[in-house]
Amino acid sequence: MANMPQDVGKEAIAHKGWFGAHKWLILRRISQLGILAAFLAGPWLDLWIVKGNLASSLTLETLPLTDPHILLQAMLSGVVPETTAIIGVFIVLGFYALVGGRVYCSWVCPVNMVTDAAAWLRRKLGIRGASHASRSTRYWVLALTLILPLITGGIVWELVNPVSILFRGIVFGMGLAWILILGIFLFDLLVSRDGWCGHYCPVGAFYSLLSVKAPVRVIAANRDACDDCMDCFNVCPEAQVIKPALKGAAKGMGPVITATQCTNCGRCIDVCAKDVFEFGNRYSGNHKSSLQPVQDH
User: Fold this and answer.
1) In the prediction, which pLDDT does 290 show?
2) CB atoms within 10 A of CB 224
3) Confidence (pTM)
4) How large is the C-alpha radius of gyration of the chain?
5) Cα–Cα distance for residue pair 234/238, rounded to 1 Å
């Protein structure tokens, strides 16, 4: 029997304990806050572990990392990238091609903490209304971020990119950045469930394209134990990716969640009292291609 959204995770807590039902969420917060702390240690404590920002950085004076979406925009605007920036892009592309591009969204992006908070409060308040924008809208926004540099000669997206604005706000003081971040929070809370990240964010859309063959995937390995409580669907920011793996056995679909929109956040693992889900290898077991479409909601 399906649980109410307000009750998501209660059975898991009873079965696994509070930590067991929040393990991957806690690890994600440690990752997100740890990355921010590494950047903030320089300007705040004069301890320069990382120099730069999430767009382009140098760790321990050795490891360059460059956001490929931003570098692509810069190149389209006419900028000739330096060798270090190109090396940084290949490092980032290689990493996310292995672990799944949208891991950036759930394990790195600071805006995720804002949208997760809105989703949690939305469940607690029992808010059900939602807009019906297609999840493919984010790919149209992504295309726009790549067209505008050709037209304007500038990286227009960075003027309104919530990730960059939130990062600068944390480092230098939020100021007007609060308005944008509060707007995203209220939009996700009152207008559309997982609205920003799930429907409009071009950054997530870009990184999802790197997940096509990523080996690290969530697997509904114990799907026969599913009791249809719906907790995984209620907590997942991309709930449409679950059904093919969880309920597709009769159609010959394997248990691996291969949809590129999956963020590998692990919340379905946390909240499942029956331990249906686990992290595993995309290529383990028999399953259909990752290019199978999933239903848009």
Assistant:
1) 36
2) 10
3) 0.90
4) 19
5) 10
